[in-house]
Amino acid sequence: MARSEFRFVVDGVDLTTEQQNLIAGEIQKAGLSALSTAGAKLANPLALGHSNLKLRPEWRGLWVLDGLGAEDLGQKINDIGFWMER
């Protein structure tokens, strides 16, 4: 499975929690836009992101998974009960 990783690091700037959450949200939007602009061919994408500072910092931002890994993780999330059919 191919993997590309992009980082945005801010060093030496004091940011409030609110500023960090806003930046994380903007990075998520920019990442999805960049995939579209680049013409990435995604079969069944699963996008996961957070800006919760209490979770592990390496998970802050956005993860886009595609293919079997996305299907497997998506099913596990459904099994936990986050998704409810309307």
What features would you describe in this structure?
- With 86 residues, the protein is an alpha+beta fold.
- The chain has one domain.
- It is 40% helix and 12% strand.
- Strands 1-2 form a two-stranded antiparallel ribbon.
- The protein is globular.
- The model has no long low-confidence stretch (mean pLDDT 82).
Note the run of SSEs as H and E: HEEH
pLDDT under 50 segments (min length 5)?
A: none
Number of strands: 2
Please give the count of helices: 2
Q: How many domains make up the coordinates?
A: 1
Rg calc: 15 Å
Q: How far do the termini sit from each other? A: 34 Å
Q: What percentage of amino acids are in beta strands?
A: 5-15%
Lateral strand order in the biggest sheet? 1-2
Identify the overall geometry: globular
Give the helix/strand layout.
Blueprint: H1 17-37, E1 46-50, E2 61-65, H2 68-80
Antiparallel strand pairs: 1-2
What is the gist of this entry?
The protein contains two helices and two strands. The chain is α+β, with helices and mostly antiparallel strands. It has one domain.
List keywords for this structure.
86 residues; alpha+beta
